[in-house]
């Protein structure tokens, strides 16, 4: 799923740009939108306000209409949680607001926004959609473990598969209780070579007897402590074949794909390949 933020002041045409992007991408692609609200909206459909459910103690409420529309509210759901939930089912998500979010974004007017800012325009009406979508296509998609599992389940050989095995690598905050905490890791890759070696690894794993589909993904950029870094997903005929392919997949990915890791702790920062010399 490709994610793009649209940020700007209230009169900059943010919603107009979201509308234009949805209209452009909605033909042939599934599109979702997220809007940053400064206050909780009432969820009210057919005169039945679910605010009473929330007041009674429900952590999340969902209202459904007879024609299939739905509205939801809840507590403690972040933008990342929302994007994770959308990723398996959508090709694009356009996010209105969230100037400080670490997602690719378009900035309108003089609105300040954290990187990465792909394009800047005077207003939503004047934005060049071709330039925006071309820049977005060059960014890595937003990938979750659920995205990859959903992908292998659509494989033509899915009916002959009795196992899906997965591996998730995370940013470990501490190696031992006395370690100084790691704040985040930063990954850079040797573009072109990294993608080629990842594709070769996938083909070789899929060529194994009993393995039907393989998905590999490694994040780049800043990954905070406790967040996921890397996924390996194997669709196979039996669990033994799936487990073996997962093990070899993550081992070979770490050995063969050129990815460079910077570790940032509370005390220092260093590139792992320089520290290992």
How would you describe this protein?
β3 (44-45) and β4 form a beta hairpin. This protein has a five-stranded parallel sheet, with helices on both faces. It has a four-stranded antiparallel sheet with strand order 13-11-15-16. The protein has 277 residues and is an alpha/beta fold. α6 (193-206) packs antiparallel against α7 (239-256). It has helices spanning 14-25, 51-55, 79-86, 129-137, 145-153, 193-206, 239-256, 272-275, and strands at 2-7, 31-35, 44-45, 48-49, 60-64, 70-74, 92-96, 105-108, 117-121, 163-170, 182-189, 211-218, 221-224, 228-236, 259-265, 269-271.
Give the tags.
277 residues, Aldehyde Oxidoreductase, domain 3, alpha/beta, 2 domains, 5-stranded parallel sheet, 8 helices, 4-stranded antiparallel sheet, Rossmann fold, 16 strands
Give the strand content: 25-35%
Number of beta strands: 16
CATH class membership of the largest domain: Alpha Beta
Order of helices and strands: EHEEEHEEHEEEHHEEHEEEHEEH
Q: What is the CA–CA distance across the termini?
A: 38 Å
Whole-number radius of gyration? Answer: 22 Å
Averaged pLDDT: 90
CATH arch. level architecture of the largest domain = 3-Layer(aba) Sandwich
**What's the CATH H-level superfamily name of the largest domain?**
P-loop containing nucleotide triphosphate hydrolases
Query: Would you tell me which CATH topology of the largest domain applies?
Result: Rossmann fold
Integer count of domains: 2
The spatial strand order of the largest sheet comes to: 2-7-1-8-9
Helix content: 25-40%
State the shape.
Answer: globular
Continuous helix count = 8
Q: Could you describe the largest sheet, including whether it forms a barrel?
A: 5 strands, parallel
């Amino acid at each position: 799923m490709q994610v793009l933020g649209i940020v700007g002041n209230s009169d900059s045409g943010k919603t107009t740009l979201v509308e234009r992007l949805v209209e452009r991408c909605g033909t042939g692609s599934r599109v979702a939108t997220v809007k940053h609200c400064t206050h909780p909206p009432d969820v009210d459909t057919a005169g039945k306000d679910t605010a009473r459910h929330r007041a009674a103690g429900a952590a999340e409420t969902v209202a459904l209409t007879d024609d299939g529309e739905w509205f939801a509210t809840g507590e403690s759901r972040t933008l990342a949680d929302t994007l994770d939930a959308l990723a398996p089912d959508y090709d694009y998500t356009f996010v209105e607001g969230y100037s400080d979010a670490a997602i690719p974004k378009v900035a309108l007017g003089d609105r300040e926004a954290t990187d990465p800012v792909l394009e800047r325009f005077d207003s939503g009406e004047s934005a060049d959609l071709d330039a925006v979508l071309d820049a977005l296509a060059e960014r890595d998609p937003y990938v979750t473990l659920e995205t990859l599992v959903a992908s292998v389940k659509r494989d033509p050989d899915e009916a002959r598969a009795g196992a899906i095995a997965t591996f998730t690598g995370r940013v470990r905050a501490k190696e031992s209780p006395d370690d100084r905490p790691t704040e985040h890791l930063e990954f850079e890759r040797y573009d072109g070579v990294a993608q080629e070696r990842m594709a070769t690894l996938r083909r070789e794993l899929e060529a194994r007897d009993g393995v039907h589909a393989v998905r590999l993904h490694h994040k780049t950029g800043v990954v905070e402590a406790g967040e996921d870094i890397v996924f390996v997903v194997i669709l196979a005929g039996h669990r033994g074949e799936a487990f073996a392919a997962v093990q070899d997949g993550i081992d070979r990915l770490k050995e063969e794909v050129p990815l460079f890791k910077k570790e940032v702790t509370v005390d220092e920062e260093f590139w792992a390949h320089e520290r290992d010399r």
